[in-house]
Amino acid sequence: MNSNDDDAFEAMIRKLDRLTTLDEEDRKAIAALPFIVRTAAAGEYLMRERQRETSCCVLLSGYACRHKTTVDGRRQIVSFHIPGDILDLQQLLFAIADHNVQTITEASYVIVPCEDLKRVAATRPNVAEALWRDTLIDASVFREWVLNVGRRDARARVAHMLCEFASRREHAELGTPERFELPMTQEHIADATGLTTVHVNRTLASLAAEGMIERRGGGVEIADWQEMRRAAGFDPTYLHAAA
Amino acid sequence: MNSNDDDAFEAMIRKLDRLTTLDEEDRKAIAALPFIVRTAAAGEYLMRERQRETSCCVLLSGYACRHKTTVDGRRQIVSFHIPGDILDLQQLLFAIADHNVQTITEASYVIVPCEDLKRVAATRPNVAEALWRDTLIDASVFREWVLNVGRRDARARVAHMLCEFASRREHAELGTPERFELPMTQEHIADATGLTTVHVNRTLASLAAEGMIERRGGGVEIADWQEMRRAAGFDPTYLHAAA
DNA sequence: CGATAGATTGATACTGCTCAATATGGGTGG
DNA sequence: CCACCCATATTGAGCAGTATCAATCTATCG
Questions:
Q1: Taking CB atoms and an 8 Å cutoff, what residues of chain A touch B152?
Q2: B41 part of contact set with chain A, CB < 8 Å
Q3: Which of A197, B63, B103, B217 is most open to solvent, judged by the fewest CB atoms within 10 Å of its CB?
Q4: What is the bridge-based pairing of β-strands A219-222 and B64-69?
């Protein structure tokens, strides 16, 4: 076992531990899971809609997103993922994927066979609860996204997306919400907010003009966290204090 | 125990049975759950955002929806519910509600204390799996709704909402998708699709003009199911064949 | 140094919103 | 049984927020 493997265990157990309380037996059961660590280039698909998947992944480093498309090819990103996130838990119980998972940056991740994880969930109620809770948080975040694209204007929508990302990043202990680089392009932001890239560009420009964000070549930083929260109408309750 | 109570057991067990395979022990554990049957008038709240809830409900008759609002009071419905649906499973693991649940029509429902349901889930893996699967389907539907409000135009959005409702109704064995009354007002449809009531009215009028739906005083019926599916770009995969 | 993805900007079009008025119809008190 | 009332649906006119289309600019990378 190399240090990469240790990282992998570490990430999964820390994640599940944040979700519920695991005992020594639970940890052992997780540590005994077979897994593979892999890396992916930016833009690589980890899962495709309609495809049959038999394993599920945990992101170790880098960023990813899930997305769906309409029949005429318009793309909607439904979530962004940060290190520690479990990417396709639904494959444990569904045979066919209903959305795509794609990396945003270079990424490394662990693959665990569904069968094995399912077995651990069936025998260790704490683990089952942690995974279930993760699913419930996912669902809560999706509800907020429906509200975001359905009832907020472009400015609040973009601001909200940035706040959520900052907040989740903070909870996952990946840094402060005050100042950091965003990994995604304006096209990603557009597809996540239901806007066009052109309009996202203009919206970001206007947020920057108001001093809420700062931009330097490609990346964006949140400069005024308080003001952003207000502009977004951001209330992190729906994140249920989890990454 | 009166016939109402029998209905309550019936509904819960049938629902969970559709989600996974329950054995006799599982059924007994569910049948032993304490519960209360209640009725609600149209428009009554069963759960409120930020409120602490200690029980969870299953809808027996009537229709309900879940919704959230922005800080400036704009409402977004995030799901519609039909008889048999479990309404607030997330309260099993979250203390604070992140959205509202409100009836659309008169309704009757069962209330089960979270504690007891949680205990059954912890001891009966099949039950836990059924509930978890229900949560995963919920999440999948939310993803589709994000796509719906984010990337479809008004016409496809409304059509998609109607198709989903018809389809779920059919899976729950509540009738055919070809022809039935919708219980919700145009305002509900507007809040579910991220449109205004005025625009929903016009969109429905245009769908009716094209012969896809028929309207008689308040209600709407789907007249041309095939054409609706096409207009909506509706593919029921995301429902994972569940009600 | 060219290639390429991503960002930026301008001009114009259009979808869906807002405001405002009117119609309809089911339910209720007298 | 009627008249009224309220929620809901419908319609019209004008406008606003975003989309679209089309260049151009800017970094980064091999």
A1: 70, 74
A2: no
A3: B217
A4: unpaired
Q: State the Cα–Cα distance between residues A229 and B196, nearest whole angstrom.
A: 26
Q: Which two tokens stand for residue B124?
A: 């009966």
Chain A nearest-CA distance from B97, in A, is 8
Cα separation, A234 vs B120, in Å, equals 36
pLDDT at A4 over 80: no
Contacts of A123 in chain B (CB under 8 A): 125
Q: Per DSSP, what are the bridge partners of residue A101?
A: A47, A66
Q: Which nucleotides of D are covered by protein (CB under 7 A)?
A: 7-13, 17-22, 26-28
How far apart are the C-alpha atoms of B207 and B76, rounded to whole Å? 23
CB of residue A125 closer than 7 A to nucleic acid strand C?
no
Q: Give me the residue label for tokens 């439904």.
A: A78
Segment B211-225 mean pLDDT = 88
Which residues, including other chains, have CB under 8 Å from residue A61's CB and lie 6 or more apart? Answer: A83, A106, A107, A108
Tokens of A119: 């077995």
Q: Which strand C bases fall within 7 angstroms of a protein CB?
A: 5-11, 15-20, 24-26
Residue B218 has what pLDDT?
72
Alpha helices in chain B (DSSP H): 3-19, 24-31, 114-123, 125-151, 154-171, 186-193, 197-209, 225-232
Q: Which of B68, B129, B138 sits opposite A147 (nearest CB)?
A: B68
In this structure, what token pair is assigned to residue B190? Answer: 């507007």
Nearest CA in chain B to A136: B90
Q: What is the pLDDT of residues B72-86, one digit of tens each?
A: 999 999 999 999 999
The mean pLDDT value of chain A amounts to: 92
* Residue in B64, B173, B55 with CA at minimum distance from that of residue B118: B55
- Structural contact between residues A30 and A86, judged by C-beta atoms closer than 8 angstroms: no
pLDDT tens for residues A96-109? 999 999 999 999 99
In whole angstroms, give the CA distance from residue B156 to residue B232. 4
Q: Which comes out higher in pLDDT, residue B217 or A235?
A: A235
Residue in the structure block whose two tokens are 């016009």: B202
Residue B7 reports pLDDT greater than 90: no
Give per-residue pLDDT as tens, A23-38. 999 999 999 999 999 9
Band (A159; pLDDT cuts 50, 70, 90): very high
Write out the E strands in chain A. 36-40, 45-47, 55-61, 64-69, 75-81, 100-103, 107-113, 213-216, 219-222
